[in-house]
Amino acid sequence: MSNETEQPEIFDSLPYYDNDLDVHPALKQKVEAELARENKQNPQAQTLHPKVPPPIELFMSNPLLQAELQRVESHQPMPPLDSLRYQLPAPPSSAATDEDWQAALNNAKAQLEHQRIRQNNIALLQSYGSNAWRVQNYLMEHTAKGLEKALEELRERTTEVNRQRKQSQTKLGAQLTTLETRWTELISNVLQIELANVALEAEINDLARRETELFAV
């Protein structure tokens, strides 16, 4: 169905203009009780508007980062560092086989290679880490400023929309009040005319009765 055939949304309240709940506190209590009852019976009634985008789910393609994010959000402590892989255990007993000694030797070689890579990484970090850190900080600050600017623009747009809504609803509310007052006056005039008609009918009937009595004499 095209947008041209869709019916526009109709709102039956002007929250920026209506003050019935403030004028009638008892009515406000009834409304709050009814809303609480509906929310209790239908928990889905508290869902967001369909136009509100769904929440962003981070690290969907990386289970490790997603688990770490969940740990931080739940305020759980960081698990202790696993130091077993950094140890150099000897074969379990004096009667160890050549395979046991070979496994221990392979583990020692792996630990030695790991320490060598760490030394290389530390040397590279000392040479280039500070510059890379500055570049990363600059990029993050630029990104943060862009997000702050976008947030400020969104707040300004939201304020402008609310301002326009308030002006529109205030204008429409004044028109409705004027029309309601005019409607009340017209109803009052109609009632007065109806009462006058009833009085005239009674007077006409009385004159007709008197005329009949005069002709009868």
For this entry, give a set of tags.
mainly alpha, about 70% helix, 4 helices
What would a concise description of this structure say?
By secondary structure, the protein is an all-alpha fold.
Furnish the topology, listing elements before pairings.
Layout: H1 20-23, H2 25-41, H3 63-73, H4 98-216
GO biological process, one term: mRNA processing
Protein name: Breast carcinoma amplified sequence 2
Main location: nucleus
Terminal Cα span:
82 Å
Q: What average pLDDT do the residues reach? A: 85
Q: What portion of residues belong to β-strands?
A: under 5%
- What structural class do the secondary elements suggest? mainly alpha
Q: Which sequence of SSEs, written as H and E, runs from N to C? A: HHHH
- Shape descriptor: rod-shaped
Report the total helices: 4
- Beta strands, count: 0
| Major beta-sheet overview | none
Indicate the low-confidence ranges by residue numbers: none
| Whole-angstrom Rg | 42 Å
Oligomerization category of the chains in this entry: single chain
Helix content: 55-70%
Protein name: Breast carcinoma amplified sequence 2
Family: Belongs to the SPF27 family.
Keywords: Coiled coil, mRNA processing, mRNA splicing, Nucleus, Spliceosome
Main location: nucleus
